[in-house]
Structure formats: C-alpha cells, structure tokens
Amino acid sequence: DNLNLHYTVGDKVTLSFSPVLPVIHVDHQVVVAKDGNEIWSQTFHDHDGNLEIEITPTDSSSFSVTGGADIGGKTSTGAFMVSGPVFNEMGTYSVTGTITGIEFIPLPIPLADEFSIEIAGSEEMDMGGMEMKSMGEHQVSVISSDGSLIVNVDTSDPVAGEMMSVTVTITTDKKVHQTNANYDIIITQDGKTVLSEIGVYTTHGEGEHMTDVLESSNPVDVQVTLQGIGKPGELKTGAMGEAISFHVVPEFGTIAMIVLAAAIVSIIAITAKTKTALIPKL
After folding, report:
1. Beta bridge partners of residue 183, listed in sequence order
2. N or C, which terminus of the chain has less Cβ within 10 Å?
3. What's the pLDDT score for residue 173?
4. 108 shares its domain with 136
C-alpha cells in the first residue's frame, strides 16, 4: 500500500489521503469512477503530504474546486472544497489516489491505490438531540463530545461456536490516527460477558479484539468507553468516560448495528482504511 484513505460522510463527503511513508510536498491525483466510467479527476499539491478533500454532492453538470490555502508558511495545506455530481447516487464508486510527485519532483512510476466505496441506504434516528445513523452491517462511528476524536467500531458477525472480532479505531478531527489513546471495551451476549478489557492502551489509535467462543448467534451488546489520551502512568487529557453502546442484531440474515445509547454526540460517518467499505446514501 502507498496511501491510506480515511473518509467521513455527513452533509459533505470528506476524503483524507495520507502517504504510508512520511513525505512532504506531495502531488496527488484523485480519480472517482462509477460503473467503469470516470466521473471526476483532479490533481492537487499538498505541502505536508496529507490531502483532505471536502466534497459536496450536487446534481449540477460541472465541478468546482476551491480552498487548499497555504498554512504555516507552506508547511501544510488547508482542505480543498469540491462540489459536483459525485456520491449522489447509489452504486459502487472507485476512488483512486495516486502520488505523482514528491518534493516537486515527478515520480518516474506513480504510486497508486484504489478504494471501492458502495453507496447504500442508511437508517437515522434522533435521540435527545443526538443524530444517529446505522453505518452499514458491521460499523458505527461517533464524534466525542468535544469534537476532538472520531471513534469507529467494526465487528464481525456473532456466530455460534466462533469468536467475534472487533476493531476499534480512534482518529483526530483531522482524520489522523490518535496516538496514545486509552479505552475500555466490554461485550456481552445473553447476559454473559464474552469480552472485557479495561485500560486498553494503543500507541497508534487502533486496537484488535476477539471475544470468547460464542455459545449462540444471538445479538451481542458492545460498549466502548473513552479513557483519555496519554501514556500509561501519565495524566490523561481529552474525552474520558464517554461511552459508545450498541446492539449487534441479526436481521434478515444480516447484522444491523443499532445504536441504543451513547454519552457522546452525533454519528457522522465511517472511518476506514479498507479497500472496500460501505457509505450511507446522503
């Protein structure tokens, strides 16, 4: 892999590309296609290498691109704002990110990665001012109450006789993995605890977990509680004691994530570093 892609969905679709290796002054080309037909292509230069694009889907026939301001004496680049007819219909979109140059030198062989994004329907509900959305079969994301963190939880199906996998990813509001993150995770099924890990510490903002072998394929309850930012033994800062709680429910042969209660504010989207993922239809 040459690029990581993190994205969020709300009123806008935000694509954040970051090179796997730490490089600066990067020339990017981004191509979005659907059903094998190119919809949009654009080249960008980003001083710190981490390209952020905010896309507003419209029904117009043309695209506009603004933003990309120089920040800190050209040490970084602000987000680019794009509006146009993309991500506004259901279907599979191919997003290709290509590094074409580094430090103003064109690469003889560009470095490209392709990501597949499926636009599908979503469920939405309002609970006490919290906008909540089901983000596909296995994923849910929320923003912390202070807006500084985005927490994504991704699970496999609960299947009798098998362990269920859970991935917790914590990023900053800039869509960069949060370092030195702390959280608790507890999962229960039929009133029995099948996973309990308190005081999880991750240097890179991502944790992988496995439950005990499940006794049934019944629904499971998952709770992840943020416990601040900081190394073990140090004073923690940031969001603490804020919980994401949801129910993984078998429905029509699939798994639907239904948020039951949360102490954090609105869900906005999925954040993923996968080649294939699900985005709710706007």
Report:
1. 200, 226
2. N
3. 77
4. no
